[in-house]
Design a protein that fits this description.
With 142 residues, the protein is α+β, with helices and mostly antiparallel strands. The protein contains six helices and five strands, in the order H-E-E-H-E-E-H-H-H-H-E.
Length: 142
């Protein structure tokens, strides 16, 4: 399958297979000139991290160490990831703060709005297998 970012509405990033463990591979991403012009780079951890790696679970095909590959993520999945990681927790905190401020003192409402993130991220961690399946990253040999 030959994917082109413009044709498939996907992000394509080149890299090298750096590690293989079990049914997943770790890919070290190359520097990408497209990160500088990307409108989502502020929310994306790839453009800011020093060690740019991504883990791909159950990749289709067989890969070898140090093999050059392309990592492909559909743009709509990136938007969903930003929603679940940043936007929804913010809205949850805001709703909790506004609702609890009607019944509790200000400091208690603020503390409760921060503490509400503990069960939220616990739920996200418990559903990590669902998110791994939902946010499937494709890998192609170059």
């Amino acid at each position: 399958m030959d994917f082109k970012a413009e044709e498939t509405d996907a992000f394509v990033h080149s890299g090298v297979v750096s590690e293989m463990k079990g049914s997943s591979i770790i890919i070290a991403l190359d520097e990408n000139v497209h990160c500088e012009s990307c409108s989502a780079k502020g929310a994306c951890g790839v453009s800011e991290s020093v060690n740019k790696t991504v883990e791909v679970v159950n990749p289709e095909g067989s890969f070898k160490l140090n093999q050059p590959v392309e990592v492909i993520l559909k743009k709509d999945l990136g938007q969903k990831a930003v929603f679940w990681a940043y936007i929804f927790p913010f809205l949850l905190m805001l709703a909790t703060l506004l609702t609890s401020s009607l019944f509790l003192q200000e400091w208690m409402a603020g503390l409760l709005s921060l503490l509400i993130l503990i069960p939220y991220y616990g739920m996200v961690y418990a559903l990590k297998n669902y998110f791994i399946k939902t946010f499937k990253i494709s890998v192609l040999s170059i």
